[in-house]
From TrEMBL:
<keyword id="KW-0560">Oxidoreductase</keyword>
<dbReference type="GO" id="GO:0016491">
    <property type="term" value="F:oxidoreductase activity"/>
</dbReference>
<protein>
    <recommendedName>
        <fullName>NAD(P)-binding protein</fullName>
    </recommendedName>
</protein>
<comment type="similarity">
    <text>Belongs to the short-chain dehydrogenases/reductases (SDR) family.</text>
</comment>
<dbReference type="InterPro" id="IPR002347">
    <property type="entry name" value="SDR_fam"/>
</dbReference>
<dbReference type="Pfam" id="PF00106">
    <property type="entry name" value="adh_short"/>
</dbReference>
<dbReference type="InterPro" id="IPR036291">
    <property type="entry name" value="NAD(P)-bd_dom_sf"/>
</dbReference>
Length: 332
């Protein structure tokens, strides 16, 4: 159970971070997916107002990172802000970014894996992995594990305050991880890995929403596996649905796919500030320092994920696949 049961859809991140300001002060925070007018920028702005020791922005475009850093420094001039180039579609870039961060700090208290892509066309990472899965899960899997020594350093003294936050979505309801064809190569997919919507089962080849559902299910499973492996060391991981937020994330959608999204959301968009609230509850609420029955949140409270996204056996299977896909010797 969270500390504030009154929190809900309309709760803002600025309110959450104010209520838990003592959980921010003196902390070292890393956020991926930071760009102007994005969820990442709003997260950074809200956190910076409450005296963290340092915030590290990790994202792909230097000019966008600099813009956000400049804005954050204007509103919170006493906070140390660092920017690190991180292209999650390149494992070489991920390794370089993790090395850079390891030279900047000797511990990380909160890691927010916020970056994502959504694309109507089938694209691939440098390693040949389907782009949504490769960036949204595999890239964060490698990045998180490379930073694990810094997270473990924090956990030795944080008593459950060390958090790894994976931004998922209600989109995980679309379908599970497609172990038999995660790369959309036209391989046969068994019934248990098919999307729940019969219309999507009939779509040949790549479909943006099936790929999206797979990635968002993977985000939740990643948190489940992290807790199983590192919970005893004092590291807690949570995944959540931040809400329907109008950002630049949908820029690569076709008009048809963008119209589909509009129909699904049906006007229930929330603000960027409201979109950070559930993420910040997961990252800061001291009640979440203790083991919970669920690791998935929506509208600032615990919610039920699909069975295939809360099965430890499936989470371990995904971990094994993720290790294979991030091995330096692996070539697709």
């Amino acid at each position: 159970m969270t500390t504030y049961q009154a929190y809900g859809t309309e709760t803002t991140g600025s309110q959450v971070v104010s209520d838990f300001s003592d959980q921010v002060k003196g902390k070292i925070v890393v956020i991926t997916g930071v760009s102007p007018k994005s969820l990442g920028q709003m997260l950074a702005t809200n956190i910076a107002r409450h005296q963290p020791e340092r915030i590290i922005f990790a994202s792909r475009t230097s000019s966008k990172l600099d813009t956000v850093a400049s804005e954050v420094k204007k509103s919170s001039p006493n906070v140390k802000v660092d920017t690190v180039i991180l292209d999650l579609s390149s494992q070489a870039s991920i390794r370089k970014a993790a090395e850079h961060i390891s030279k900047l700090v000797d511990q990380i208290d909160i890691l927010i894996n916020n970056a994502a892509v959504v694309d109507s066309e089938l694209r691939h990472t440098e390693e040949g992995i389907e782009m949504q899965f490769g960036v949204g899960h595999i890239g964060h899997f490698l990045f998180t594990n490379l930073l694990m020594p810094l997270l473990e350093s924090s956990a030795r003294s944080s008593k459950g305050a060390t958090r790894i936050i994976n931004v998922s979505s209600k989109g995980h309801h679309i379908g599970p991880v497609r172990f038999h064809d995660y790369n959309f190569e036209g391989k046969e997919v068994p019934e248990e890995e098919q999307p729940g919507d019969a219309r999507l089962k009939q779509v040949p080849g790549y479909n943006v929403w099936v790929a999206y559902g797979q990635t968002k299910s993977a985000n939740i499973l990643f948190s489940l596996a992290l807790n199983d492996r590192f919970g005893a060391k004092g590291i807690c991981s949570y995944a959540m649905h931040p809400g329907a937020i109008q950002t630049d994330l949908s820029r690569s959608l076709s008009p048809q796919d963008a119209a589909f999204l509009e129909r699904i959301v049906d006007g229930s968009w929330i603000t960027l500030d409201q979109g950070t609230s559930t993420i910040l509850v997961a990252a800061l609420d001291p009640a979440l320092s203790k083991p919970q029955e669920s690791i998935y949140l929506s509208d600032c409270q615990f919610a039920d994920a699909e069975p295939y996204a809360r099965d430890l056996d499936i989470a371990n299977r995904l971990w094994t696949l993720s290790e294979k896909l991030t091995s330096p010797r692996q070539h697709l």
